[in-house]
Structures are given as C-alpha cells and as structure tokens.
Amino acid sequence: MGKIVTVHSFRGGTGKSNLTANLATYAAMKGRNIGVMDTDIQSPGLHVLFGLGGERFKYTLNDYLRKKCTIEKATIDHTKAMRLKAGNLHIIPASLNADDISTIIREGYEVADLRQGFKQIMQAKQLDYLFIDTHPGLDQETLLSIATTDLLFVIMRLDQQDFLGTAITLALARKLGVPSTYIVCNKVPGIYDFDKVKKDIEQEYGFEVATVVPLFTRLIELGSRQILVQVSPSHLFAQNIDQLFKRCEVTLNNSVKR
Ligand SMILES: Nc1ncnc2c1ncn2[C@@H]1O[C@H](COP(=O)(O)OP(=O)(O)OP(=O)(O)O)[C@@H](O)[C@H]1O
Ligand SMILES: [Mg+2]
Known about the structure:
Elements: E1 3-8, H1 16-29, E2 33-38, H2 46-49, H3 61-65, E3 76-77, E4 88-92, H4 98-107, H5 111-124, E5 129-133, H6 140-148, E6 151-156, H7 160-175, E7 180-188, H8 194-205, E8 209-214, H9 217-222, H10 228-231, H11 237-254
Parallel strand pairs: 1-5, 1-6, 2-4, 2-5, 6-7, 7-8
Antiparallel strand pairs: 3-4
The chain binds adenosine-5'-triphosphate and magnesium ion.
Adenosine-5'-triphosphate binds next to helix 1, strand 7 and helix 9.
C-alpha cells in the first residue's frame, strides 16, 4: 500500500505547488509510481506546472467530488508527456473553471468521498506515493488531508506572518496525530546562515527542518511554467528536492501504515 504525503502552509504563496510538483516529478524520475493531487479547489493551479494550464479536462477532482465520475476518470497519466524513463506520474487536477469552483464552494460535497478518492486512486494505480497539494490556511480539504496523511511537510518563509501561521498548522498536526511532520523553510535569501536558520526553527517549534530552500531567481523566472528538477536536474534546487524525497523514503518505509 502506498503512502500519502501532504504539502501545506498556513500562509499563501510559500511555494507549496512548486515544491509538490517538483517532488512528485523527482520521485517519478527515481522510478516511483506517483500520484499528485490538487486539493486546492478554491484556487487550483498544480496542473499548470505540468504544462496543462491551457487544457480543458473532461473530468477533474471537482467532478469526482460531485459524484459525476470515478476518481480514475479524473486522473491523467502524464508519464509519456513528461518523457519519464523510469517511474510513472498521474495527475489529479482540480478545475480552473469559474462555474465549477463556485458550484462546489456553494453546494459542498461529502468529505468522506475525498478520503475514499485518496484510497481508490492509490489502489487503482498501485501508487508508491500520493502527493497532495493544499489550499493555504485550514479548510475542510486540508483538515482531511492532514488527518489522513502519513507524512506532512509544512512550508514556511522567514516572515513573521508565516511564523505565527506555522505554529497553528503544527499544533493541528500534533492534535491529529500525524505520524511524521517536517518543516521546510523556503525562499531564504542568501544573506542568511542556513544552518542557523534550521537550528533556530527546530528550537522554536520542536519539529525537524527537512530542508532550507534558497530564494532562487530561476524559479521566479520559470514562473510555474515548468518543473525545474526536470528541465535543470543539476540546479541546486534539485538537492533540496532530493532531501525531501529521501525524507519520504526513509521515514515511510519504516513507519507503520494507519
Ligand atoms: N525557493 C523559491 N525561490 C524563488 N521563488 C520561489 C521559490 N519557491 C517558490 N517560488 C515562487 O513563488 C511563487 C508561488 O509559488 P507556489 O505557487 O508554488 O506557492 P503556493 O504556496 O502553492 O501558493 P498558493 O498558496 O497560492 O497555492 C511562484 O512564482 C514560484 O515560482
Ligand atoms: Mg498552490
């Protein structure tokens, strides 16, 4: 049985979608069978990073949650399109259509169906990992993802608003008994001592920092148009993603499935 890895931050724009898409791609490049789901139904965008921004999907996560299709129908096998030589990559996008978004917000859906969707797609595609990109803050999709996940990465920047928000997410992770939680500090300007940043955050929150990611001009230039670890595998960013991947492998191969 595969494992669920959720990427969350209390504040918006911390880099969740970019980190999730890169980690999912990297894991697939390492031969893993991967699913990556956009549970940010209010402001979706994960699929844009995979070059699918202009695509009109027949089905999305929204259709599954509104009981119009199976979760498999809302899943895109992107392995060939990405020319992956080793693993597989399956994307479950959320709809970027204004009507779809407003309908699901207005009419809601059965939260249990989302949990069921995680399980079904993991089984149907025999996934090693299902990576979940979330909406910032705490909404029902995020609460469910955190309650269900095997591993949680909490993304933060060196910003006072992020500090306070991160404390809330971490308190929730403790309360919900997430088996493994790690902090990722992203967009750190080069003027900082990265080892000190890691130590200070760990001391403050009592959770391990999985990696400290520099503020990379290249990521800003790419502007969520491509997956940096794939287009430039030798870029320093790949080392950060490798640390996250190894964290998943080491932690989850040893942990007991709930
Ligand atoms: N380490 C980094 N260095 C520079 N820019 C980065 C870095 N990480 C992410 N970015 C940029 O920050 C912007 C926001 O990233 P992204 O969309 O991944 O964040 P998010 O947390 O998913 O946002 P939202 O909360 O709106 O879903 C993007 O333009 C992305 O390229
Ligand atoms: Mg996002």
